[in-house]
Amino acid sequence: MKNPLTPLVPVLVPALLVSAASGAVVIDSINNGDGMSEISLNINIDGSGAVTTGSPWFALSGSITEAGAFGGTIGVTFDAAKNLSTLTSTLGDELEEGYFDRDDNGYMGVQVDPNSGGIGANASNHEGVTIALDELTGIDPSVGVRILSINIQNVGRVGTDPVNESFTVVNLLTRDSLTFIPVEQSLSAGSFDVSSLNLYLTGGGSGALAAIVSGDVGGFRIDGLTLETFAVPEPSVTLLGGLGFFGLLRRRRA
């Protein structure tokens, strides 16, 4: 069996054929409070694309412009894990439930061990958080909802954090992943681009979508994420385009 602390390796991800982004919403974690294993919110979209939430734990900014999502609801759940798998075939799966530790800024960590509320690792576990889109109701199946970026704080601080502090973001549907080492990659705390992982579901879908797994050292926290909506290409259009391309190749070879 592979050592559970084997370093996570970034995987190259193929691009998804979609149209340009047509609306984005930023979710920011607010208010402190400990002890919850899951924290959820509903993003309610009105008939013009404005967004609201009744959650006391999150604030929203931005809007939706994809008409097929107007009047719909996007449910988002953050789930704390004391231990997430680092094995290739089960990368990001929760092995042991955790509980949130939220600091004075509202940033989300995992309680107590090993980094006093930050998300880290010790000899027997890799802490982390999974993200589910658990309610895409009233949204047309031709509309996709995708995670564009994840806001990570308390990471990559020169002189404060370890040089090799890292975290890995996993697509739980494909097991593709991206590993970030902020100091070595000249990155800083803030929104980390995960668009290449294609973390999306279409209207009517639901389920666990992404995991954020700690590297071997560190103690970062999660502030929130950015979602976008987009028009999903019709399979028939994509297929016809492909057939036309191969037909052109055949004519050139003739």
From TrEMBL:
Residues 231-253 form the Ice-binding protein C-terminal domain. Keywords: Signal. It comes from the Bacteria. InterPro entries: Ice-binding_C. Residues 1-20 form the signal peptide. This is Ice-binding protein C-terminal domain-containing protein. The lineage of its organism: Bacteria, Pseudomonadati, Verrucomicrobiota, Verrucomicrobiia, Verrucomicrobiales.
